[in-house]
Amino acid sequence: MRLGNRSLEILTTLVERSGELVTKAELMARVWPDVVVEEANLRVQITALRKALGEGRPGHRYVASVTGRGYCFVAPVEPCEPAPVAQSSAVQRMHNLPPSLIRTIGRADSLGALLRQLRQYRLVSIVGPGGIGKTTVALAAADALMSAYDDGVWFVDLAPLRDPQLVPATLTSALGLEIRSRDVIERLTNHLRDKRLLILLDNCEHVIGAAAAVAEQIATSAPNVDILATSREPLRLRQEHVHRLLPLASPPRRSDPTAAEALSFPAVQLFVERATASREDFELSDAEAPIVSDICRKLDGIALAIELAAARTDAFGIHQLAALLNDGFRLGNQGRRTAPARQQTLAATLDWSYRLLSEDERIILRRLSVFTGDFTLESACAVAAGGHIAGPEVVGGVSNLMAKSLISADVSDVAVRYRLLDTTRAYAIEKLRDSGEAPLASRAHAEFYRDLLDRARAEWARRSTDEWLAIYRQEVDNIRSALDWAFSAGGDPAIGVSLSVAAAILLFDLGQIYACVASAERALDAIEADPGHDLHSEMRLRSALGAALVYTRGPGEATDAAWLRALELATELGESDYEARALWGLWNARLYGGSPRIALGFAERFCDLAAKRGDTAKLLMGQRITAISKHYLGEQAEAKQILEYMLSRYERDLHRWHTAGFRVDHRIVGRANLARVLWLQGAPDQALSMSQGSLADAQALGHVMTLQYVLSETAIPLALLVGDLDAAGRLTALLLDLATKHGFFIWEACGRCFEAIRLVRSTNPGTGLPLLRAAVAKLRHTGFEAHITLILSMLAEAMCDAGEIEEGLVAVDEGLARCAAHEDRWCISELLRVKGRLAWAKGSIATAEENFREASAWARRQGALSWELRAVTCLAQLRHQSGKAAEACELLSSVYDRFTEGYDTSDLRTAGAWIGTLRPQPD
User: Fold this and answer.
1) What is the pTM of this model?
2) What angle do CA 85, 89, 94 make, to 5 degrees?
3) How does DSSP classify residue 75?
4) Long-range CB pairs of 889-892, under 8 A, 24+ apart, other chains included
């Protein structure tokens, strides 16, 4: 640890009186004897001392302030004998390295790499954007290497220079040489020829040519002299090895780290250390850890930006600081007073880089600031070209800006993607606005993404889902930004309409449902304001809106209105494809609305249209939705037959439908639908196997809509029905995570119901029942009623187990009323069984038996062997209570024996145990 003389004197004074208060007056008298200084000087030195000691890290506390009085050294102090002073020449190494006032954080890997590189290469350049910490890392490396150079380590600060011709003289001065010859370089290289030393050329970028020339001559003429340079761009010398200094790592996006987890990342470590130096009582809490992580990410892991932000915690606190940064707050003059002027503020650092650019490079940088996130070289050329700057000049400009650390590149994929750091982008946007070019750049940006989405739409049929999404998901941030501009006061609504039409499929496939609704509604508002609007565009937008609304606002009037208008327009315009989409959407809304009979009518119309058009792909899809409708109506045998036929002929890559909301993998969801039917028909093992296979395929596909469908429709309900509560818990957590992340509020409501049911059936029934009541109320509010009858049966049974008989009867009667009104009869048997249990609990034995018998009869008519087993198990239990054990055993065995699998599921285990109890025991 290197300290300046005054910092060392303060540390000595405090340690000598460890644990005691040392007043400010005492410290100033000792450090500045016979000199009148302001108290601010003492504060600066105390801050530097704390940073050098590493104060601010967890468990590191050294110097405590006593408000208004002075300071106290609070760390343990152990007296020891002075270490003998070695007389070796290594200790006497010469150097002019400045005292290190700050601790190097999160750079162990970079330091290790630099030390290895300096052993292998004679000229190493540390390259990175302004404020990233190049000088700090270079000084740490030079300090670590001091013993390796007999003639010292020499620091040359080129930042103050304005004239490149002064580089040689500055170097000779730093080396302590007086060379008055006109040929400074020749004399310098002659002096260095037999020396073994390291030269650190700091801040080369603004005198890059002169610095490179000097470095090359030294490297050529002085074989034992090594050079370590820092610059925002490489020196571009043959002997040079470039070390790119990366931003400090932050916790990943969308993580919710604890304080301990966040502090494992160097960006957060730096923030906390600097915040503690600014505000002594600062301590990172678990609640604030995600906010600090977001701040560090927003500041791109740039050390200077993080330091400046952390210094503002004393004025704003963490929450307000984060809000200000989100609102574009600029980090002003809060840097270290001892820092160079170019690093006093982030703007000054960026001004320094901006001034070093050519005029064309400045124009290109400004225009590229319209991109949100990353971009391709193709998009850069489309947006940044214009005026005297053509495409080839943009390519060269991007390359130069990369070299100067103002653009970063991700070369991990086939297509290279570029981005401006958020801090650089914010600066460049201001310059773009000042230049008056912002409207033109924004228009070019929006037009490019409109055309890109038209191309994506054409490619949809040729590419697989995962391939198509892998290409275009990276463009979403820019597409949303283009939409925002198009519908803004200075934008172009016509471009916005075209963008909205083209973007709907991508937004929907990525699960960004609310974004899909927002863009469609804005575009429709623009269309309705234009009496001569394009009806085809309106038709496409109504289709996209209807597809999204069912998941965001439920299957209600707004959803129906969107689809009915889309159907009307499609019929009028002769657009049979969109006519089919509208019929599909209306089927989906009615099925989710709990009306399978009406849904079946739309499914049959869909099939008729597909048959009329000779479209075998849509005909197979129509058969799937027909089968689902029949399943909910209780016609399981027909549903199974149709699903098996559809799955035997379905080929995913041939049967794809280019429309928002329907691009699920019909093979995966068809198998999930069949799994439900198989469980009902008494094949639980086959059902679970098919469900698990569908889930694995959906997860591998990575398509949000398909995965959420499989989870909510099949995987979770089956886990609950077979009694696998652990699996139900895991799968429900996954569903809730997806639903909340992507805004599928109907599936979130279902997920809350499933989770409460799991709690009721586990060791926490007291907690689960109130949660289940609340979740069912929320599910009703969504209008999503496809699952409501099953969930009401589970709620009523939970109430029965809790002794809430009357409340249970209300719930079960609501479910039965829905069955009667909408023919949603697939689980009518289960509702009647639960009603029988409630009657039995009230003491109405005859009513209970009647309910159980009716439940069994409905299950037999529907071919629902699993429901029949449940009903007959309850009936056998009732008979046993009446003293009719033999009759009960025969009745239950007659159903149990029809099963050929699933003996480890909860229903069959229960039935088997009861048969064992009821069967007469041998004498």
Assistant:
1) 0.69
2) 105
3) S
4) 889/915, 889/918, 889/919, 889/920, 892/918
Distances (CA, A) of 137 to 156, 192, 206, 333: 15, 25, 20, 23
Cα dihedral 637, 642, 648, 650, rounded to 10, equals -150
What backbone phi and psi angles, to 5 degrees, belong to 857? -65, -45
Total residues found in the chain within this entry: 923
Instruction: Classify residue 482 by burial, with Cβ atoms within 10 Å: 0-12, 13-18, 19+.
Output: buried
Distance in angstroms (rounded) separating the CA atoms of residues 649 and 917: 48
Nearest to 811 by CA among 792, 787, 833: 792
| Type and span of the H or E element at 240 | strand 240-244
- Give pLDDT tens digits for 398-417: 999 988 888 888 887 777 89
Is the sign of the CA dihedral 783, 788, 789, 795 positive or negative? negative
Q: Which amino acid is at 37?
A: V
Give CA–CA dist 497/55, Å, rounded: 56
Q: In 3D, which of 347, 420, 349 has the Cα closest to residue 383? A: 420
Neighbour count for residue 493 (Cβ, 10 Å): 18
Residue 166 and residue 171: Cα distance in Å, rounded? 9
Distances (CA, A) of 797 to 773, 788, 802, 836: 12, 14, 9, 10
Over 90: is that where the pLDDT of 371 sits?
yes
Indicate the helix (H) or strand (E) that contains 732.
helix 725-742
| β-pair type (63-66, 70-73) | antiparallel
Distance (Å, rounded) from C-alpha 794 to C-alpha 814? 13
**Displacement of CA 447 from its chain's centroid (Å):** 28
Q: Following DSSP, what letter does each residue of 898-922 receive, concatenated?
A: T--S-TTSHHHHHHHHHHHHHSPPP
Quote the DSSP letter at residue 252: P
- 587 near 625, Cβ under 8 Å? yes
- Report how far Cα 109 is from the mean position of its chain's Cα atoms: 26
764-802 pLDDT tens trace: 667 789 999 999 999 998 888 899 999 999 999 999 999
The two structure tokens encoding residue 788:
């409501």
State the residue for tokens 């506390």.
Answer: 61
In the 8-state DSSP scheme, what is residue 20? S
**Angle CA 334–340–344, to nearest 5:** 20
